[in-house]
Each structure stands twice: as C-alpha cells, then as structure tokens.
Amino acid sequence: MAKCYIAAPAGVDLGALPDVLSDRAISWEWAKGTANALPSPSEAIIAADFLIGIVDGSRSDSQVFYEVGLAAGLGKPVLLIAKGRKIPSDLRQFQVAKVPLKDRRALGLHIDIFLKTPKRELEERSPSQRTSAATLNRLPRASTEFHGTVSELEDRAYNIVEACGGRAIAQPSDSVRAKYRPDLLAWLGHQDAELLDPTVIEIRRRVYPKDMRQIEEQLLVFMQATGIRTAFVLTAESPPQVERQLSPYIYWLTLDEFEALARQSKLGTYVRETRNRVMHGAR
After folding, report:
1. N or C: which end of the chain has fewer CB within 10 A?
2. Within this chain, do residues 173 and 270 fall inside the same structural domain, yes or no?
3. Domain check: are 63 and 163 in the same one?
4. Which residues contact 188 (CB under 8 A, 6 or more apart)?
C-alpha cells in the first residue's frame, strides 16, 4: 500500500481528501500534534511515498512550507492544494490544485493526474530515492484512466509540450462521466504558473462554425469541475473566426501557432494579452 503524508495547517478540515486517498488504497498520516505514539513529521515524510501540502493563507502555512521543503529534499513528489491563495514563486515547481477540499470529484481527478504525471526529476536521483517514483507508477486508479495519444495530431501536440520543457498526459478520462474526455492535459508553469499549470488541450484537424459552441461548452464543464483555468483548441487547419466566445479562457490556435508560441516561451504572454482583449470587447 502506498503512503501519503499530508502537510496541513493545524485544525484544518481535510474534507473529502481522506476518503479520496482511501478509495485509491493509499494510507495517509499527518501531524495531528496530539499522539506521542505517532512518528515525528520528518520520520513520517521519510516513510511516505509522496506529500500533499494544503495551504490556506494562514500563518500555519510556514510549517507546511517547511515540510514541503523537507519532502522535496528527500526526492518525494509533492502536490499542493491551495485554498484560494497564490503560491509563492519558489513553490511553483510543484503541481498545484486549486480546488475545494470538499469537492470529492475534483480532488480525485487532480490526485489521479498527479499520480500519473511523469516524475522525470526523480529518475536522475539515486536508486534508493527512485523507489517512491516506482511505487507511484503501481498505484491503483479508481475513477480516472490515462491512455496514449490516438492520432498523429495529438502526438504532435504532446511532443510540442514536452519539447518546450512542459509535461503532458494524453487522454485523461473520468470513467463515471465519460461523455467528454479532453485530448491532453499539459503543465506549462514555466511559461505562466497561474494560467498554464495545468491547461487542457482539445485537438481537431478542422472545426466547423456549427461545432464551436459545443466544443467550448464541453471544455468549460471540464474546467469548472477540475479548477483548470485555461484551455486550448488546436487545429491543423485555421479555425473559423470566433464571433462570440463563451469564455475568455479558451483559446483557438493552429498547431503551428501553438508550437511557435510555446517554443519561443511566449505562450503565457499571448494568453494574458488575448484574455484582456476579449474581456474588454476588443480583438
């Protein structure tokens, strides 16, 4: 059984998190500060396969940050759950989920994504430190499946993300609500940690005007359920002119345009400038 250490402010309500971990056959521990029989936080972190840190903007975050730093120093994967606060820049190297602790479905999806994200930085460490990464690859999956790319276009988009220093997962799906599955989830935090870490990507060879609204509606439902703030629709052929977008956080680009922006590290700038124009009624 895999082990998780939860670093959280004293007295915080963990919400659905314990149940989500139990559903995935993951045991967990945290510093409740009462039982002498419990190991110290440092001992518990050493024994854990990964750490989940919960930050809420209180003074207690300093202890969470200390425990996150300890886990990182030990080569343990870290997932941060932020309760409505910005993450300090030196912690943006870690995956961040901005979802309510009571939202079981969103928590489950983010944890499944985290467990399946390639831990490349750990592969360069010593064999003993690679044990935790190997354990994560064997973790059972309860509600989310991850498949390989299924088309040449998806493969190209995946390779673009990886080549520019990002991370990508192909074909994430929620088996309970399998009516819609985005093609890729990508982490591009080095270009914009707030809006691109992570982002969802839908890929089409061509898009007809009559299909645009349905695509945006599907993306919005997925984004609202997961807390993801930005989505891209990437096409091989130039997409139709968008007359009225449902959201200023959905961007229509050709694969060529996306690749040029990503490789030049201009994707974050493009997203923010385009969003601002849309929100102010300009193009």
Report:
1. C
2. yes
3. no
4. 161, 164, 166, 196, 197, 198, 199, 262, 267, 268
Q: Both 157 and 274 in a single domain?
A: yes
Query: What CATH number is given to the structural domain containing 176?
Result: 3.40.91.50
Q: How many CB atoms lie within 10 A of CB 212?
A: 21
Range of the domain at 159: 144-279
Rounded Cα gap, residues 48 and 37, in angstroms: 17
Q: How far is CA 257 from CA 141, 161, 165, 208, 273, in A?
A: 35, 13, 17, 19, 15
Which regions of the chain does DSSP assign to beta strands (E)?
Answer: 2-7, 26-30, 50-55, 78-82, 95-97, 144-146, 167-170, 172-174, 184-187, 199-204, 231-235, 250-254
The CATH number of residue 117's host domain is: 3.40.50.450
- Residue 77, CA distances (Å) to 69, 130, 169 in order: 11, 11, 17
Q: Which residues touch 153 (CB under 8 Å, ≥6 apart)?
A: 203, 204, 205, 234, 236, 255
CA 21 to chain centre: 17
User: pLDDT tens digits, the chain, 283 residues: what are they?
Assistant: 889 999 998 788 999 999 999 999 999 988 654 445 556 788 889 999 999 999 887 777 888 888 998 898 888 999 999 875 566 666 667 878 878 899 888 888 888 878 876 554 434 433 333 333 333 333 333 333 444 445 889 889 988 998 888 877 776 554 334 466 788 888 888 888 888 878 999 999 999 988 998 999 989 988 877 778 899 999 999 988 766 666 889 999 999 999 999 999 999 999 999 888 877 665 5
Q: With contact defined as beta carbons under 8 Å apart, do 78 and 68 qualify?
A: yes
